[in-house]
Design a protein that fits this description.
Blueprint (H helix, E strand, L loop, with lengths): L13 E6 L10 H8 L3 E4 L5 H5 L6 E4 L11 H15 L1 E6 L9 H10 L4 E4 L4 H8 L13 E5 L9 H8 L3 E5 L5 H9 L7 E6 L7 E6 L3 H7 L6 E5 L7 H10 L15 E3 L1
Parallel strand pairs: 1-4, 1-5, 2-3, 2-4, 6-7
Antiparallel strand pairs: 7-10, 8-9, 8-10, 9-11
Helix pairs in contact: 3-4, 6-7
This protein binds S-adenosylmethionine.
The site of S-adenosylmethionine (SAM) has 25 residues, from α5 and β10.
């Protein structure tokens, strides 16, 4: 008789906490993708790629447990309990989260909750939008001689106030990468202007790595106006610092503004821009 080592048929409860990456379905890790294909049930968030979900085998249960504004929102307690129930009922639960599960993703809370029930948890890191968002439009979060560090900060705290860390970060010379700040742009700009020059370059990146991604570029003094004009909306990343000035838009602008230099053929027409 052949000895079968595979125990998958027992549907033992287990949880894979997987980072789906910033949006582009190709930016999930190979390991994450493999585990996803082996899932019995997938609980996913709003920012997870539909294409990834469409590639799941037909028999896999897919449940949206997001917290999107204006729709039924799952509380974190409901999600925790649901993923434990699913693990005992179906076996392998994949919790698929946008970006990295441990970057403003509440992934560790889910891990602790599942482990308290004795459910084994595997964490598969994802590419965080905090780094991939800026990178995808040509903005490095560090650059030798320009920025030695970056702060990834949430704009608001649990009590919907501007985070104290953002105030500290603004006082440093570090690159600021601000998540969940789309609606707080005005407050963020006011705060940063207290510590950084009005010419400081800023990049606003909307729906990074997705086909409809947009980038709005300007300096601290003008960015709020540009964001209103161009209807900057969530999900968005705000990058503040000289590294944002490495975006080709600013390079072109510098060339345009500098006398005796050749004009680039496709010069940007104004100080504002939506770049793809
Ligand atoms: C709850 S946080 C989760 C972050 C995620 N865990 C990560 O590592 O990217 C959600 C915020 O991440 C940012 N974000 C995530 N994906 C994004 C994308 N594709 N484009 C722009 N911003 C994104 C936005 O600031 C959004 O409000």
């Amino acid at each position: 008789m052949k000895y079968v080592k595979n125990t998958d048929f027992l549907n033992l409860p287990r949880l894979s906490l997987i980072g789906a990456g910033p949006g582009d379905p190709e930016l999930i890790s190979r390991k994450g993708y493999r585990l996803l294909q082996e899932a019995d049930v997938v609980l996913y968030d709003a920012l997870v790629s539909q294409e990834l979900l469409d590639e799941l085998p037909q028999n896999v249960h897919k449940v949206y447990v997001g917290k999107r504004c204006g729709q039924h929102s799952w509380t974190q307690d409901e999600i925790n309990q649901f993923l434990v129930d699913c693990a005992f009922r179906y076996g392998h639960v994949v919790r698929l989260k946008g970006g990295d599960p441990f970057v403003f993703g509440r992934g560790h809370e889910e891990l602790q909750f599942a482990q308290a029930y004795g459910i084994p948890v595997e964490v598969v890191p994802g590419i965080s939008s905090a780094i991939a968002g800026p990178a995808s439009v040509g903005i490095p979060v560090t650059h030798r001689g320009i920025s030695n560090s970056f702060w990834v900060v949430t704009a608001t705290t649990r009590k919907h106030q501007i985070s104290k860390d953002l105030k500290l970060a603004a006082q440093s010379s570090s690159t600021l990468v601000i998540l969940m700040g789309t609606r707080k742009l005005s407050n963020i700009v006011q705060l940063v202007l207290q510590h950084r020059p009005v010419e400081t370059p800023v990049g606003l990146i909307e729906s990074a790595t997705l086909p409809h991604a947009r980038t709005i570029l300007g300096n601290l003094g003008e960015i709020e106006k540009l964001a209103v004009e161009q209807q900057f909306s969530a999900p968005g990343i705000i990058v503040v610092g000289e590294v944002a000035g490495l975006h080709p838009f600013f390079q072109d602008k510098r060339r345009r503004d500098t006398p005796f230099m050749n004009q680039p053929e496709q010069a940007v027409q104004s100080s504002s821009s939506i770049a793809k």
